[in-house]
Amino acid sequence: MEVKQIYHEKQRLQFCLLHALNNLLQLCCESGKDSFTRVELDAIADKLVIEDPNRDSWTPLSIIFKPHHNVLTGNYDVNVLITALESRRKRVVWHDHRNGASSVNLSGETLMGIMLNIPVRKFGGLWRGRHWVALRSIGGVWYNLDSDLSSPQPFQREEEVKQFLDNVISQGGELLLVLNDRV
């Protein structure tokens, strides 16, 4: 049995969505680590701004803190995630957290991976934000591909993945299921 190298981008500034997308897509694209770039995500965010029906209500701070990302540090929102994955023929389904992780079919044929949006506190709780994390099954083993980790962390069994997901939900996190489009 051939052991494949697991690609894992590390966190830089607030580009966790960029890192999470590349970690998630590592095995589905020939280009692997070059799946998404900052330029591509910025272009997606800018296109979303042009199509935004509420852009008349912007303030001067909107030049830096744009509706879908921060131009200096990244920090992209869910609209960028969905549009980016749709460009790679993936479908994103928001998981109803009222059902808990037990309703997620981790061995489903169309499930490509899971994107998490987790609340975080840094600097002694002075800074609050959210962090994007990818989970994916590779070679039949589920991995936490969090860019804040030093390396991908394998889960021992599916029940451990579901416990982790239930913990994310209980902490106010969101689960987005990434599905392969059927052709």
From TrEMBL:
UniProt GO MF annotations: cysteine-type deubiquitinase activity
EC number: 3.4.19.12
Catalytic activity: Thiol-dependent hydrolysis of ester, thioester, amide, peptide and isopeptide bonds formed by the C-terminal Gly of ubiquitin (a 76-residue protein attached to proteins as an intracellular targeting signal)
InterPro entries membership: JOSD1/2, Josephin
Stretches assigned to the Josephin domain: 3-183
Name of the featured protein: ubiquitinyl hydrolase 1
Keywords annotated in UniProt: Hydrolase, Protease, Ubl conjugation pathway
Lineage: Eukaryota, Viridiplantae, Streptophyta, Embryophyta, Tracheophyta
Keyword Protease: yes
